[in-house]
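BUG: 3D viewer hangs when loading the predicted structure for this chain

Environment: internal workstation, default settings.
Expected: structure renders.
Actual: progress bar stalls at 90%.

Input used:
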Amino acid sequence: MKHTRQILVLTILLALCSSAFCQTKDVKDMIVKPRKKQTPAFYFKAYYLSPSYDLLNSINTDINQGKAFGILSHTNIGFSYRIPIYRSFYIQPEALYCLNTNWEDAYLNRDSFFPRMTYAFNNRLNSQFDFPIHIGLRWCPSKLFAARVYAGPIFQFTLAQGNFKFTPGYFLSMGVGLDLLNFLCLDAGYRVGMYNLTIYENTARYFLALSIKL
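C-alpha coordinates produced before the viewer hung:
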Protein backbone atom coordinates (compact mmCIF):
# COMPACT_ATOMS: atom_id res chain seq x y z
CA MET A 1 0.00 0.00 0.00
CA LYS A 2 2.83 2.43 0.70
CA HIS A 3 3.81 2.42 -2.99
CA THR A 4 0.25 2.89 -4.25
CA ARG A 5 0.51 6.69 -4.36
CA GLN A 6 3.76 6.57 -6.34
CA ILE A 7 2.34 4.03 -8.79
CA LEU A 8 -0.83 6.12 -9.26
CA VAL A 9 1.16 9.30 -9.89
CA LEU A 10 3.40 7.46 -12.36
CA THR A 11 0.35 6.01 -14.14
CA ILE A 12 -1.24 9.49 -14.48
CA LEU A 13 2.02 10.93 -15.83
CA LEU A 14 2.32 8.14 -18.38
CA ALA A 15 -1.28 8.67 -19.45
CA LEU A 16 -0.72 12.40 -19.89
CA CYS A 17 2.47 11.83 -21.86
CA SER A 18 0.77 9.26 -24.10
CA SER A 19 -2.14 11.62 -24.74
CA ALA A 20 0.19 14.48 -25.64
CA PHE A 21 2.18 12.21 -27.93
CA CYS A 22 -0.95 11.00 -29.69
CA GLN A 23 -2.22 14.56 -30.15
CA THR A 24 1.13 15.61 -31.57
CA LYS A 25 1.09 12.65 -33.96
CA ASP A 26 -2.45 13.49 -35.05
CA VAL A 27 -1.48 17.09 -35.75
CA LYS A 28 1.50 15.93 -37.80
CA ASP A 29 -0.71 13.55 -39.75
CA MET A 30 -3.15 16.37 -40.46
CA ILE A 31 -0.32 18.54 -41.74
CA VAL A 32 1.46 15.92 -43.82
CA LYS A 33 -1.46 13.93 -45.18
CA PRO A 34 -3.74 15.59 -47.73
CA ARG A 35 -7.43 15.71 -46.84
CA LYS A 36 -8.22 14.28 -50.22
CA LYS A 37 -6.06 11.64 -51.83
CA GLN A 38 -4.12 12.87 -54.82
CA THR A 39 -4.92 11.43 -58.23
CA PRO A 40 -2.93 11.59 -61.46
CA ALA A 41 -3.86 14.56 -63.64
CA PHE A 42 -3.11 15.72 -67.19
CA TYR A 43 -2.80 19.47 -67.94
CA PHE A 44 -2.47 21.84 -70.87
CA LYS A 45 0.13 24.46 -69.92
CA ALA A 46 1.17 27.94 -71.10
CA TYR A 47 4.55 28.98 -69.68
CA TYR A 48 5.73 32.61 -69.94
CA LEU A 49 9.51 32.91 -69.59
CA SER A 50 10.77 36.43 -68.95
CA PRO A 51 13.28 37.47 -71.66
CA SER A 52 15.21 39.44 -69.03
CA TYR A 53 15.83 39.28 -65.30
CA ASP A 54 13.25 42.05 -64.76
CA LEU A 55 9.93 40.19 -64.95
CA LEU A 56 7.54 43.15 -64.66
CA ASN A 57 9.43 45.26 -67.17
CA SER A 58 9.48 42.31 -69.61
CA ILE A 59 5.71 41.87 -69.35
CA ASN A 60 5.06 45.60 -69.83
CA THR A 61 7.36 45.69 -72.85
CA ASP A 62 5.65 42.67 -74.45
CA ILE A 63 2.19 44.14 -73.87
CA ASN A 64 3.15 47.57 -75.20
CA GLN A 65 4.86 46.17 -78.28
CA GLY A 66 2.43 43.48 -79.31
CA LYS A 67 -0.28 42.85 -76.69
CA ALA A 68 -1.24 39.15 -76.84
CA PHE A 69 1.22 38.55 -79.68
CA GLY A 70 4.00 40.10 -77.60
CA ILE A 71 3.21 37.86 -74.62
CA LEU A 72 3.08 34.73 -76.80
CA SER A 73 6.45 35.56 -78.31
CA HIS A 74 7.99 34.53 -74.98
CA THR A 75 5.53 31.76 -74.10
CA ASN A 76 6.03 28.01 -74.33
CA ILE A 77 3.01 25.76 -74.66
CA GLY A 78 2.66 22.06 -73.97
CA PHE A 79 1.45 19.43 -71.57
CA SER A 80 2.24 18.20 -68.07
CA TYR A 81 1.30 15.08 -66.14
CA ARG A 82 1.15 15.13 -62.34
CA ILE A 83 1.85 11.77 -60.68
CA PRO A 84 1.35 11.25 -56.91
CA ILE A 85 4.27 9.37 -55.38
CA TYR A 86 3.84 9.50 -51.57
CA ARG A 87 1.23 11.24 -49.44
CA SER A 88 1.48 14.91 -50.47
CA PHE A 89 4.50 14.46 -52.75
CA TYR A 90 4.29 14.26 -56.53
CA ILE A 91 6.44 14.17 -59.65
CA GLN A 92 5.46 16.16 -62.73
CA PRO A 93 7.13 15.59 -66.11
CA GLU A 94 6.33 18.15 -68.81
CA ALA A 95 6.88 18.74 -72.52
CA LEU A 96 6.89 22.37 -73.69
CA TYR A 97 7.35 23.85 -77.15
CA CYS A 98 8.39 27.29 -78.41
CA LEU A 99 9.57 28.95 -81.63
CA ASN A 100 12.88 30.65 -82.20
CA THR A 101 11.98 33.21 -84.84
CA ASN A 102 12.10 36.92 -85.64
CA TRP A 103 9.02 38.06 -83.73
CA GLU A 104 9.58 41.73 -84.52
CA ASP A 105 9.67 40.99 -88.24
CA ALA A 106 6.42 39.02 -87.95
CA TYR A 107 4.78 41.90 -86.06
CA LEU A 108 5.81 44.48 -88.64
CA ASN A 109 4.91 42.43 -91.73
CA ARG A 110 1.40 41.38 -90.68
CA ASP A 111 -1.45 43.41 -89.21
CA SER A 112 -3.36 40.93 -87.01
CA PHE A 113 -2.71 38.15 -84.51
CA PHE A 114 -3.17 34.93 -86.51
CA PRO A 115 -1.35 36.12 -89.67
CA ARG A 116 1.54 37.20 -87.42
CA MET A 117 1.68 33.81 -85.74
CA THR A 118 1.57 32.07 -89.13
CA TYR A 119 4.37 34.29 -90.43
CA ALA A 120 6.44 33.66 -87.30
CA PHE A 121 6.00 29.89 -87.62
CA ASN A 122 6.71 29.74 -91.35
CA ASN A 123 9.87 31.83 -90.93
CA ARG A 124 11.13 30.16 -87.76
CA LEU A 125 14.85 29.67 -87.24
CA ASN A 126 14.28 26.47 -85.26
CA SER A 127 11.95 24.83 -82.76
CA GLN A 128 12.83 24.38 -79.10
CA PHE A 129 11.56 21.70 -76.73
CA ASP A 130 11.85 21.91 -72.94
CA PHE A 131 11.39 18.81 -70.78
CA PRO A 132 11.02 19.77 -67.10
CA ILE A 133 10.86 17.10 -64.39
CA HIS A 134 9.53 18.63 -61.19
CA ILE A 135 9.35 17.03 -57.76
CA GLY A 136 6.92 18.82 -55.48
CA LEU A 137 4.95 18.93 -52.26
CA ARG A 138 1.22 19.70 -52.39
CA TRP A 139 -0.81 20.91 -49.40
CA CYS A 140 -4.59 20.76 -49.74
CA PRO A 141 -6.36 22.35 -46.75
CA SER A 142 -9.63 22.80 -48.67
CA LYS A 143 -11.56 21.47 -51.65
CA LEU A 144 -11.35 24.97 -53.12
CA PHE A 145 -7.59 25.28 -53.39
CA ALA A 146 -4.22 23.64 -52.80
CA ALA A 147 -0.72 25.11 -52.53
CA ARG A 148 2.44 23.61 -54.03
CA VAL A 149 6.21 24.03 -53.91
CA TYR A 150 8.50 22.23 -56.33
CA ALA A 151 11.91 22.08 -57.97
CA GLY A 152 13.69 20.08 -60.64
CA PRO A 153 15.80 20.08 -63.80
CA ILE A 154 14.78 21.17 -67.29
CA PHE A 155 16.42 19.49 -70.28
CA GLN A 156 16.36 21.28 -73.60
CA PHE A 157 16.44 20.10 -77.22
CA THR A 158 16.49 22.10 -80.45
CA LEU A 159 14.99 20.93 -83.73
CA ALA A 160 16.64 22.52 -86.78
CA GLN A 161 16.54 21.26 -90.37
CA GLY A 162 15.06 17.97 -89.22
CA ASN A 163 17.79 17.24 -86.66
CA PHE A 164 17.47 17.20 -82.87
CA LYS A 165 20.30 18.72 -80.88
CA PHE A 166 20.66 18.46 -77.11
CA THR A 167 21.58 21.68 -75.32
CA PRO A 168 24.60 21.05 -73.03
CA GLY A 169 23.81 21.26 -69.34
CA TYR A 170 20.34 21.85 -67.96
CA PHE A 171 18.19 24.43 -66.23
CA LEU A 172 17.37 24.27 -62.53
CA SER A 173 13.79 25.37 -61.90
CA MET A 174 12.11 26.28 -58.58
CA GLY A 175 8.56 27.47 -58.14
CA VAL A 176 5.37 27.78 -56.15
CA GLY A 177 1.87 27.04 -57.36
CA LEU A 178 -1.79 27.37 -56.50
CA ASP A 179 -4.48 24.90 -57.63
CA LEU A 180 -7.97 26.39 -57.82
CA LEU A 181 -11.13 24.24 -57.80
CA ASN A 182 -9.04 21.22 -58.86
CA PHE A 183 -9.13 22.62 -62.40
CA LEU A 184 -6.93 25.70 -62.79
CA CYS A 185 -3.24 25.96 -61.77
CA LEU A 186 -1.21 29.15 -61.38
CA ASP A 187 2.57 29.02 -61.05
CA ALA A 188 5.44 31.44 -60.54
CA GLY A 189 9.10 30.69 -60.17
CA TYR A 190 12.71 31.07 -61.13
CA ARG A 191 15.11 29.13 -63.31
CA VAL A 192 18.80 29.30 -64.10
CA GLY A 193 21.08 27.52 -66.56
CA MET A 194 23.62 25.08 -65.13
CA TYR A 195 26.36 22.69 -66.20
CA ASN A 196 27.03 20.04 -63.57
CA LEU A 197 26.92 22.26 -60.45
CA THR A 198 28.16 25.44 -62.14
CA ILE A 199 25.71 28.25 -62.86
CA TYR A 200 25.83 29.86 -66.30
CA GLU A 201 26.07 33.63 -66.11
CA ASN A 202 23.16 35.76 -67.37
CA THR A 203 20.74 32.82 -67.55
CA ALA A 204 18.56 33.64 -64.52
CA ARG A 205 14.93 34.17 -65.52
CA TYR A 206 11.53 34.33 -63.83
CA PHE A 207 8.49 32.52 -65.17
CA LEU A 208 4.71 32.54 -64.85
CA ALA A 209 2.51 29.65 -65.91
CA LEU A 210 -1.15 28.84 -66.35
CA SER A 211 -2.39 25.23 -66.57
CA ILE A 212 -5.85 23.85 -67.28
CA LYS A 213 -6.79 20.32 -66.26
CA LEU A 214 -7.86 18.11 -69.16
